[in-house]
Amino acid sequence: MKELAKSGGLSVDLASAFDASPNPYMLLTPDLRYAGMNRAYLDVTQRSREDLLGQHVMAAFDAGGDEANAARLLASFEKVLATRQVDHIPMLHYAIPLPDLGYVDRYWSCTHSPVLDEAGELRYILQHTSDITELQTLRRQASERRGAGGEGPSALDSILSGQILRRAEDMQADNQRLATERNQLVDMFMQAPGFVAVLSGPEHVFQMYNPAYGQLIGHRAITGKAIREALPELVGQGYYEFLDTVFETGEPHEGRGSRVQLQRTPDGPLETVYLNFIYQPIRDGAGKVAGIFVQGHDVTDNVLAADRQKLMIDELNHRVKNTLATVQSIAMQTARSHTDPKSFAESFQARLLAVSHTHDLLTRSHWEGADLRAILEHETEAHGAQRISLNGAPVALGPAAALSFGMIFHELATNAAKYGALSNPDGRVLVDWAVADQTNPVLHLTWRELDGPSVVEPTRRGFGSRLIERNVRHDLAGQVTVEYATSGFTAEFMVPLDQEKSE
């Protein structure tokens, strides 16, 4: 129309030409409101220009409540808005309201064309309609005539019934079926539980992707962008190269538990995720690779869970070996100190119970550690809480330190009950502790026995003494000083608390 207005120096009033056309035309804005219509359109609808301008087309003509055909008309308009391509409806059964008659059945053939501005943006939808009600009526009459046993179909009957309207109806039915199938496929695509995307061409341009893919990449707007522009953080991670190879060779690529770093929030840090995925080539009608179908699942939780499980199994194996080594050492050392099987069994069982008590405390904290006071209470409660005085602030011990202190306190309490302050009714035990040097914390603990029998330093070192010294020096990397004073036995411990962290 622009070229027509410029050509030959002619002054052409396009509005007048539009209005003078014998074919019904009307213009809709992108929000489907009337922007203009010609005289033929007003004549066929028997409406006034003032009545229609600015009104929504579906409000002005609602098909008399025929929702299915109203939806078909609306879908055609929306298709033009979305694709900027011409859309045809070969035959549309659509009733319109006429003055004094109400809704009157009509059959139409409709063409909807996009009208673009200089920037390529859609300004209007141009509708051209043809009223084919009379053709439909003639076709029905011809069909009734054949059904009544009349003469065979005439040439006009054949045209009306077999070549024009039926072809239009078949085409329309096929289009509707294809549209329904396409919509079903799109719905399946968008609702897929895993992430899905379609990439086009050698640059891997995003044509479409589902919400799961959007969630994976942080809901970025990537439609129409090549993958190197849409997901620049993938550089150096190999995924561009995988896509290039699939496009060039036509062979699919599969990844399992593949590590990838993605920026899932704007200007945020890279986050590590693990994916199971497949890149599947898409071929055109000639068999040439035209794009790539991406499908997969985020398996980060599964991978991390498997890693945690392996770590736990390795830690369990380590602890079991250490425990068995401890039990073996306890058995051997106890056997050396007890020739009588009965006394050996009693001592061995008591020492295993001490280890078991500490294991119980560690299990409650998922083996993250145990409190010093709780260990002392466990190992001394059998001798009466009123005879044991515990004084000190809470101190968290790591698993290894907790096990060592459990065995140490068991030996101290057992010796006190056999030979020291707890061997007579008036004896008491005072345990005091404090933590010095918070930068490199060191536990200072004193075990002091009072009001017991006179203490004599033993002539030989028993298993308890060797166990205490070995645990403090070897396992805890600390120091222990013991004193067999006449007034009572005393043991002082200096143990670094960060020893486990540094190992």
Give the helix/strand layout.
Blueprint: H1 2-6, H2 14-20, E1 25-28, E2 34-37, H3 39-45, H4 49-52, H5 57-60, H6 67-83, E3 87-93, E4 96-98, E5 102-104, E6 107-116, E7 122-131, H7 133-147, H8 155-191, E8 195-200, E9 205-209, H9 211-216, H10 227-230, H11 239-249, E10 253-263, E11 270-283, E12 289-298, H12 300-337, H13 341-364, E13 370-371, H14 372-380, E14 388-391, E15 396-397, H15 399-418, E16 428-436, E17 442-450, H16 463-475, E18 479-485, E19 488-496, H17 499-502
Parallel strand pairs: 14-16
Antiparallel strand pairs: 1-2, 1-7, 3-6, 4-5, 6-7, 8-9, 8-12, 10-11, 11-12, 13-15, 16-17, 17-19, 18-19
Helix pairs in contact: 7-8, 12-13, 13-14, 13-15, 14-15, 15-16
Describe the structure.
There is one protein chain. With 503 residues, the protein is an alpha+beta fold. It folds into three domains: 2-131, PAS domain (Beta-Lactamase); 192-298, 2-Layer Sandwich (Beta-Lactamase); 304-502, Histidine kinase-like ATPase, C-terminal domain (Heat Shock Protein 90, 2-Layer Sandwich), CATH 3.30.565. Helix content is 45%, strand content 26%. The chain is built from 17 helices and 19 strands. It has helices at residues 2-6, 14-20, 39-45, 49-52, 57-60, 67-83, 133-147, 155-191, 211-216, 227-230, 239-249, 300-337, 341-364, 372-380, 399-418, 463-475, 499-502; strands spanning 25-28, 34-37, 87-93, 96-98, 102-104, 107-116, 122-131, 195-200, 205-209, 253-263, 270-283, 289-298, 370-371, 388-391, 396-397, 428-436, 442-450, 479-485, 488-496. The strands form five sheets. The chain has a five-stranded antiparallel β-sheet with strand order 2-1-7-6-3. Strands 9-8-12-11-10 form a five-stranded antiparallel β-sheet, with helices on both faces. A five-stranded mixed β-sheet has the order 14-16-17-19-18, with helices on one face. A hairpin with a 6-residue loop joins strand 10 and strand 11. Helix 7 crosses helix 8 (155-191). The radius of gyration is 45 Å and the shape is rod-shaped. The protein starts with a helix and ends with a helix.
